[in-house]
């Protein structure tokens, strides 16, 4: 008898669950699963795009500051060149020209980063980092050769 009562209760419960619930005046229709997935995916894409743009801007500002710092250091090195002997001055001027060339190349890389889309900038970021590191390495080598 207990089994029969349990089956009756389960049948009634199953039937009541199969009918849609009545909507009250304040209820709004729930979006379908597909609509929710599309909405959630769109929001995730937008959030990712915004985050990427923020990262790009942070990187751009950091690289711009590093290039400005290198420009100051190259200018100081140029001043030291005037006090060097004629032979040393010639070598220093060659090294300074190379540093200026590398700084200009890093500046071009930065311009590409600025103009890039959010999806393409990460590759350019690697190129920019390499250009700045090459500039720093060359600067240290030049400093080490000073008389």
Secondary structure layout:
Layout: H1 2-18, H2 33-82, H3 86-115, H4 121-144
How does this model look, in words?
The chain has 147 residues and is mainly alpha-helical. It has a domain at 52-147: Up-down Bundle (Receptor-associated Protein), CATH 1.20.81. It is 82% helix and 0% strand. It has helices at 2-18, 33-82, 86-115, 121-144. The longest helix has 50 residues, at 33-82.
Core attributes:
single chain, about 150 residues, mainly alpha, Receptor-associated Protein, rod-shaped, disordered N terminus
- Report the order of strands and helices: HHHH
| First-residue to last-residue Cα separation | 106 Å
**Fraction of residues in H or I helices:** over 70%
Overall residue-averaged pLDDT value = 79
Tell me the β content.
under 5%
What's the Cα radius of gyration?
33 Å
CATH architecture of the domain at 52-147, by name, is: Up-down Bundle
- Count of discrete alpha- or pi-helical segments spanning 4 or more residues: 4
Based on secondary structure, the structural category is mainly alpha
CATH class designation of the domain at 52-147: Mainly Alpha
Shape: rod-shaped
Let me know the largest β-sheet.
none
Runs in which pLDDT lies below 50 for 5 or more consecutive residues are 1-11
And the CATH topology of the domain at 52-147? Receptor-associated Protein
**How many β-strand runs?**
0
